[in-house]
């Protein structure tokens, strides 16, 4: 048997994981999520954001117990359980348009995320290692991420069409189909042989302790992280506010999924051209300032001049700049963090941002119930203020 053929056979589980990544993110409801809640679920924007805080809080709480499950049953089984729980959560969501039902659905989805988070990356790394592809792990992770983005791109417009012709709840319950295929992909993957792996539950506790201690000892890194989290957190609300804003200016429901797909494409474009953008703006500091100011300006533009053009610009330009900004700045933070501490510190930053959003979600949501334009204006103003009062200095990125 030739070496190339043997390598292809060994790489088969890796390709199966790519398929899992595609189907896992093939969520048909992403482009019509807010109309699903408001039109079918009959709940307010404030209640929607309260659900998101509930969801994030449970992910935070469940990381340790679900990590113990991955330690005991294996990472493949943890992921499989997570997808099954996710399917149940999706079906619970569409069982009745009631806020209490939505709380239960979000809880189940949080259980799913906690069961899958961390275990999925560990599984593909160990699978690649067992196949003799450890040296290509970065490429494999990159391709898996590309398959996730492809799933998002294709699913969003299909979901809009389903909502238009089959009803607002259709994208939600139809999302159980790609999740079934994701479960099938994981079931077909062999469990890698036991290696000296770090305990998932212990890893989470170490992230909390070591991450906080590391930030305390390294103020430069702390200031960079604060700047990154501030603008990324403001940009996060584009995802939740663009759909009601788009509908209010006359953009048809059918086109929301297309806008979402173009938004994801713009994110891919920005992420793929970080080095080029850095050269265009002369420095990383200049690009970060520009991306933050543009994000704030776009929010203010929609607040003052709500139109189809301004809303689409907010989503595509501000959305892609603000939501890739954390990824861009992470490359600079990596230079300040020893490789042995890198995963821990970056995970701690992600946790801190999630905690901040637990607090901010209901505040922004209930503001949007009173005035969508005012909320967009406040977010834009906060982005501008965060830029000019940021502790980030040019020399920190040199």
Give structural notes:
With 398 residues, the protein is mostly helical. The chain has 2 domains: 10-191, Growth Hormone, Chain: A (Up-down Bundle); 199-398, Growth Hormone, Chain: A, CATH 1.20.1250.20. Helix content is 82%, strand content 0%. It contains 18 helices and no strands. It has helices at residues 3-10, 12-24, 33-40, 45-73, 75-93, 99-116, 119-130, 137-166, 170-174, 176-188, 200-217, 219-248, 256-272, 274-281, 284-304, 308-336, 339-370, 372-388.
Layout of helices and strands, plus pairs?
Layout: H1 3-10, H2 12-24, H3 33-40, H4 45-73, H5 75-93, H6 99-116, H7 119-130, H8 137-166, H9 170-174, H10 176-188, H11 200-217, H12 219-248, H13 256-272, H14 274-281, H15 284-304, H16 308-336, H17 339-370, H18 372-388
Helix pairs in contact: 2-8, 2-10, 4-5, 4-6, 4-11, 4-17, 5-6, 5-7, 5-10, 8-13, 11-17, 12-16, 12-17, 12-18, 13-16, 15-16, 15-18, 17-18
Helix vs. strand class:
mainly alpha
Q: Compute the number of structural domains.
A: 2
Whole-number average pLDDT?
84
Count of helical regions:
18
Largest sheet: none
Q: What percent of residues adopt helix (DSSP H or I)?
A: over 70%
The CATH H-level homologous superfamily of the largest domain: MFS general substrate transporter like domains
- Unreliable stretches, pLDDT < 50, 5 or more residues? 1-10
* End-to-end distance: 51 Å
CATH class of the largest domain: Mainly Alpha
**What sort of overall outline do the alpha carbons produce when their principal axes are compared?**
globular
Helix and strand run: HHHHHHHHHHHHHHHHHH
Question: What is the number of beta strands?
Answer: 0
Percent of sequence in beta strands: under 5%
- The CATH topology label of the largest domain is Growth Hormone, Chain: A
CATH architecture of the largest domain: Up-down Bundle
Assembly classification: single chain
- Computed over alpha carbons, the radius of gyration is 21 Å
């Amino acid at each position: 048997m030739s070496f190339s053929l043997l390598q292809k056979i060994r790489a088969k589980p890796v390709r199966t994981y790519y398929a899992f990544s595609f189907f896992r993110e093939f969520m048909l409801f992403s482009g019509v999520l807010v109309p699903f809640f408001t039109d079918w679920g009959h709940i307010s924007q404030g209640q929607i954001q309260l659900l998101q805080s509930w969801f994030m809080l449970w992910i935070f709480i469940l990381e340790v117990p679900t990590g113990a499950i991955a330690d005991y049953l294996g990472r493949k089984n943890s992921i499989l359980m997570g997808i099954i729980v996710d399917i149940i959560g999706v079906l619970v969501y569409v069982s009745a348009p009631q806020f209490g039902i939505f709380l239960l659905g979000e809880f189940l989805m949080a259980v799913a995320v906690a069961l899958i988070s961390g275990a999925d990356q560990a599984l593909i790394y160990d699978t690649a290692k067992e196949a003799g592809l450890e040296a290509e792990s970065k490429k494999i992770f990159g391709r898996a991420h590309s398959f996730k983005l492809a799933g998002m791109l294709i699913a969003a417009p299909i979901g809009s069409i389903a909502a238009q012709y089959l009803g607002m709840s259709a994208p939600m319950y139809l999302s159980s189909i790609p999740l079934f295929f994701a479960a099938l992909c994981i079931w077909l993957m062999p469990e890698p042989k036991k290696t000296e792996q770090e305990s998932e539950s212990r890893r989470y506790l170490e992230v909390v302790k070591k991450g906080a201690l590391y930030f305390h000892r390294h103020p430069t890194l702390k200031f960079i992280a604060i700047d990154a989290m501030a603008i990324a957190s403001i940009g996060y609300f584009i995802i939740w506010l663009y759909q009601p804003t788009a509908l209010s200016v006359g953009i048809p429901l059918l086109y929301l999924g297309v806008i979402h797909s173009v938004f994801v494409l713009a994110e891919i474009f920005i992420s793929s051209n970080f080095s080029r953008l850095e050269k265009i703006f002369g420095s990383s500091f200049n690009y970060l300032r520009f991306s933050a100011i543009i994000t704030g300006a776009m929010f203010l533009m929609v607040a003052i001049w709500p139109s189809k053009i301004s809303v689409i610009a907010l989503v595509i330009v501000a959305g892609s700049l603000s939501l890739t900004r954390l990824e861009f700045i992470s490359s600079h933070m990596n230079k300040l963090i020893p490789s042995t501490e890198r995963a821990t510190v970056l995970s701690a930053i992600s946790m801190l941002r999630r905690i901040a959003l637990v607090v901010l979600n209901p505040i922004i949501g209930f503001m949007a119930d009173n005035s969508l334009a005012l909320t967009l204006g406040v977010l834009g103003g906060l982005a501008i203020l965060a830029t000019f009062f940021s502790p980030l200095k040019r020399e920190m990125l040199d």
